[in-house]
Design goal:
With 292 residues, the chain is of the alpha/beta class. It has one domain. It is built from 9 helices and 11 strands. Strand 2 and strand 3 form a beta hairpin. Helix 4 packs parallel to helix 7. The longest helix is centred in the middle third of the chain and has 17 residues. It is globular.
């Protein structure tokens, strides 16, 4: 099993204490976001790989060496300011944290996500070209893989359109980004790819690969499973232990946050000693052990 920590919220940034409590306890409970009475119980002994997805790895750094599972990191690093990402630490601190993560888990196991790209008057194509090149130069000795994606019109994105002020990207925009990003990655000995994008940019030197392919999962774990079938995006199936509307970054383009009142409520209902990320188990919950 691949454990995703997490695509629904930033557990590393805000709930590391809870995660480490669950890791020491040996299991974690996950409430189904669509069927609230259904709870999956996952034992860490059944986990082959932990994939940490975060914008701020700093809180997890003191604990990384104590995690005995295979680890893969996806760390999102974008050039936006507080108008777009109001609650992120300074990007310089995140870059230093990425370097520390790389030293511990190895640079082959660290993917940086430049994600999502949107174009506006403030965040122009030229701005992204310069920012991406600077990022690659700073991380050249610590990161081997870069994943790029473009903004999608999720519910939260549309709600914040007056803040984001993004415009439709033209073919020329894609061409400039494709060529310049590919050049920046190449000179720093990095691979660069998109994942589940209509514009793959392979014509400009991007490679065609999933964020977590079956091949990479096998390479990291040495195991193959019948139920490791590719999802719609082509990535292998993962068990996400997060909860929607619980991330305090409050990024204006986020797909997992769409109700700020619910975020406040969920954060109040978080207990680092609970088996669930948000709230507690109820007597009428149906708990099923998940192994696949």
């Amino acid at each position: 099993m691949v454990l995703m920590v997490s695509g629904r919220t930033d557990i590393v940034a805000f709930y590391t204490e809870w995660f480490m409590n669950r890791y020491k306890e040996g299991f974690v409970d996950v409430r189904n976001p669509f069927y609230k009475k259904m709870v999956s119980r996952i034992y860490f002994k059944d986990v082959d790989l932990i994939m940490f997805c975060t914008k701020n790895p700093i809180p997890l750094l003191p604990y990384l060496k104590s995690i005995k599972h295979k680890i893969l990191f996806h760390i999102t690093l974008t050039p936006y300011h507080k108008d777009i990402e109001p609650n992120l630490p300074p990007k310089g601190k995140i870059i230093e944290a990425i370097k520390e993560v790389s030293k511990i888990v190895g640079k082959e196991n660290v993917y940086v996500r430049y994600d999502p790209i949107f174009i506006s008057g403030k965040y122009s194509v030229a701005y992204h070209v310069k920012s991406f090149d600077n990022m690659c130069n700073m991380l050249s000795d610590y990161v081997k893989h870069i994943i790029v994606s473009f903004i999608d019109e999720y519910k939260n994105t549309v709600k914040n359109k007056s803040v984001l002020k993004y415009r439709q990207m033209s073919d020329k925009d894609y061409e400039i980004i494709g060529k310049s990003f590919s050049e920046s990655a190449s000179k720093n000995d990095m691979t660069i790819q998109t994942c589940f994008e209509k514009n793959t940019l392979t014509e400009y030197g991007f490679i065609e690969r999933q964020c977590l392919s079956k091949e990479l999962a096998y390479q990291l774990t040495g195991k193959k499973y019948k139920l490791w079938q590719a999802r719609k995006c082509g990535c292998v199936e993962m068990a996400d232990i997060g909860a929607y509307n619980s991330c305090k970054h409050l990024c204006k383009y986020c797909y997992a946050n769409f109700d700020e009142d619910k975020i406040i409520e969920n954060c109040k209902n978080h207990n680092p000693n609970s088996s669930l990320l948000i709230g507690h188990l109820n007597k009428d919950d149906e708990i099923k052990i998940r192994k696949d």
